[in-house]
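Handoff note, outgoing to incoming analyst
You'll be picking up this chain. Sequence as last confirmed:
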Amino acid sequence: MHLTPQQIVAELDEYIIGQKAAKRSVAIALRNRWRRMNADPDIREEIVPNNILMIGPTGVGKTEIARRLAKLAMAPFIKVEASKFTEVGYVGRDVESMVRDLTEFSITMVKNEMQERVKGKAAENAEERILDILIPPLNSKGFGIERANTGNNTSEIATATLEDNPSSTGTELNQKTRERFRQKLNNGELDDRSIEVEVKKSISPTMQVFGPGGIEEMGINLQEMLGNLSGKGKTTKRKMSVAEAREILVDEEAEKLINHEDAIQEALERVQKQGIIFIDEIDKIAVSKTGGKSGPDVSRQGVQRDLLPIVEGSTVNTKYGLVKTDHVLFIGSGAFHVAKPSDLIPELQGRFPIRVELNSLSEGDFYNILNEPKNALTKQYQAMLATEGVHISFSDKAVKELARIAAEVNEQVENIGARRLHTIMSSLFDELLFAVPDDIKKGNITIDKDYVNQQLENLVKDKDLSQYIL
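Most recent structure output, in case you need it:
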């Protein structure tokens, strides 16, 4: 299902307050991906995405828009920090690694979709593997049930089956016993039973290689080589419950059923046609014209120069093949407190034609943020305390007072936007969270304006607010 621009904005409204212009821009850009895919083939390749640059102070929703967009995109999407990249020749990550990361994400995404489609068949195969452990099939010497008789009630079921069918042959007895166990397995009667399962070894990479051009890609291959030397891909025996074994074996069987080459080709195509890269903190690589040219500025400009061909459209070599970035959508984001968008090199500025300014949050916005979103902080604290049997409610005046205090502290100290609410709410609930459940077992508590003022009195009155700055 592909959402329309208005539907995308409506989805974002459930989590992000205000910032209509930014929501409209990303919604249109996201929908344009679908429009290009369905355009006339003669002009489809000529339609290039209009990259977006979001400008606004910290804590106003830039990163949150990226997080929510990732869930709505239904396309390969990654968020990267521009400050983590270094110029080619310096030790660190080169900008091409963002395309490689996007490719990895896309492959995982496609494989998960393919595995979901074969989940039914995988579940059947996993069930057979579990039954083979519980009731091994008869071999040429007639052994089968006897080998499984050492565990729990297997022998009792086999004996009962033999008594019910005294004339049964070994093969028939084995089959009937398997069917009885299959029924118990499907009913969940064996979920807690412990069995020994042969599963694939999974070894996490223990090193990462950084360095000048191409070395990082070599590092990835080096990790694979070391993984193979240490036994990656081999199997190991583990004891676990039937319920846990079923989950692991279903995933293993699903992986066997999919065509990995087809998955890679489809993933590469998705990256090139639908990929989205969100570059956060892009202002950190801008060089202020008022500052000098020494220090890290040379590297910052180098990162911009390296980023330019990626954004303009180039071919990046990955271990799965070549990836063209001509139709990848780039969304840049930054506070631009020190540097300005005009401090980016002109060529890079030109590759972000759509600029959206996000507004600072007002007292009214704070009030809405505490009330409206699905993940509002008030709802989060209610959910946490409800686990202890304590049910919290907020009066409207209390929420307004919290919004007023947050806005006031932001004005007096540093404006960190909605992040200030985390400080305010943490101070408000500090005493209550410590008292539950030792002093307060259960009950209903209403947070009113007086309680807010009582708990946050020092926060508002103290001139030295350094301890409350995040």
